Amino acid sequence: MLLVVLRTLALIYIGLVVLAWAAQRKLIFPASRGVHSTPASYGWNYEEKLLPVMGKITQVWFIPVEDARGTFLISHGNAGNIADRLDSAELFRSMGFNVVLYDYGGYGNSTGKPSEKRCYADIRAVWRYLTEEQGIPPHEIVLFGRSLGGAVTCDLAPDVEPGAVIIESTFTAMPALAQEVYPFLPAKYLVRHKFNSAEKIGRITAPVLIIHSPDDGIIPYHHGTELYERANEPKQFLEIQGSHNYGFVQSMALYKKGIDDFLRTSRQHRSVSGKNAVETP
Questions:
Q1: pLDDT level of residue 186 (50, 70, 90 thresholds)
Q2: Any idea which fold 2-272 has?
Q3: Please, are residues 163 and 69 in contact by the beta-carbon 8 Å criterion?
């Protein structure tokens, strides 16, 4: 009888492992197709661009402001799509920055399926669009990534020379996070999409700001502190309060000041080092 029970439990466990492996794309990339708002909904002028990426299309919104201090290239988290990031666009526009939003493959109006490889190809296509087609100098671009977008940003940032890099509420690597979320499974061995920011962040030469909340219930705080430890100088850490998705809203005054202070000091550092930097007032 005991042998039968153990055999049944083993089969159930194996079934869970197979299910987790098969369902990981939907778990990692819970994409939303419906684009419910556009910058025009806020009364903003913008340019929409459909970039060819890996034989598919990546949708981009370039939202300019007059006399811009620089340009924020935003890589968003794993849920929703660019329509859900217009609040962040509004914040950075209010700080005097152009904003660029784009969707990964399989999100919004971007065609194809999401994957680690596709995300990396998407952000590189957007970088080329900004630097080559829009003619924006690399040192005037702030690479900003939140959650999954931080991992996407960490892949591009070592290979280019942006004015600054901001990584918010991001994990060290997907296998490590998966093992914490599913400790009863060999999760770290099942994950196909690695997103290993911990291995890449130490190769970034631009000033880095890490933002994380100890209240984050989705990506534990220690992921942020470990990324900070692995980053090169000049670097800063901004501790905010609040949940994973709304911490920046719940800590708005601190959040906005922290980013402004970081950009100011990063400009000073790059001026001393002889490099250009994002403009600060």
A1: confident
A2: Rossmann fold (3.40.50)
A3: no
